[in-house]
Amino acid sequence: MSAILHAAATPAAPALVLRPWSLDDVDALVEAYRDRSLGRWATSRPENRAEGVRWVQNHQRGWAAGKQFAFAVLEADPEAAAPRLVGHVVLKDVAPGNPSAEAGYWTASHARGRGIASRALETLTTWAFETFQADGLEALELLHQVDNVASCLVAQKCRYEFARTLPAAPPLYPLDGHLHRRCAHP
Fold first, then answer.
1. Strand-pair partners of 102
2. What are 124-174's pLDDT values in tens digits?
3. Please, what's the largest Cα pairwise distance for the chain?
4. Which of 31, 91, 133, 184 could form a disulfide with 69 if both were Cys (CB 3.0 to 4.6 A apart)?
5. Which of 103, 123, 125 is nearest to 10 (CA)?
6. What's the CA gap between 13 and 87, in Å, rounded?
7. Closest CA relative to residue 24, chosen from 56, 46, 51
8. Cβ-based burial of 181 (10 A; exposed 0-12, middle 13-18, buried ≥19)
């Protein structure tokens, strides 16, 4: 399975293309992760080309296994020679009969504050329910650390309701977290 998703342009922002990660994305990926604030909330951080290749290949294996679907989010700026990497969205823990899966996302520092994350998350959410609801997918969950206010706002904007606070689980999750949930049928 493979998919290319689109988020239409808005009056204030160009269209987005969401597609599976490729090895052509490695340099832009490593550059995005040089941003310290992104690394603060990420559980894995490719710091060089070799680690970036492994990161992309890991996500390609997720697609092949049909359990994790990671998308590079590209801005289709008509004035640019090629689309520019602006973020990442992922659908994790997908399995037939499993009523829930997890959504995640990040935005590159140069693209923050322009609605990229919410547009990409909404596109992923719609695709996930359309694609996996027949297999039993009823809800998507989203987790973020309590100090990640921007992620909380994105979740709320995309109608992921706050469900509860989760306790810290160091070392991967040093702070408490918020669990948000969106059901296929509200």
1. 92, 141
2. 999 999 999 999 999 999 999 999 999 999 999 999 999 999 998 887 778
3. 46
4. 91
5. 123
6. 14
7. 56
8. middle
Residue 155 to residues 35, 139, 165: CA-CA distances in angstroms? 22, 14, 14
Write out the two tokens for 54.
Answer: 């492994």
Supply the pLDDT for residue 43: 67
Partner residues linked to 6 by β-bridges: 17
Q: Is the pLDDT of residue 81 over 80?
A: no
Strands 84-92, 100-107: pairing is antiparallel
- Token pair, residue 48, equals 């060089």
Any residues with CB less than 8 A from the CB of 159 and at least 6 apart, and which?
182, 186
Report which of residues 96 and 121 the model is more confident about.
121
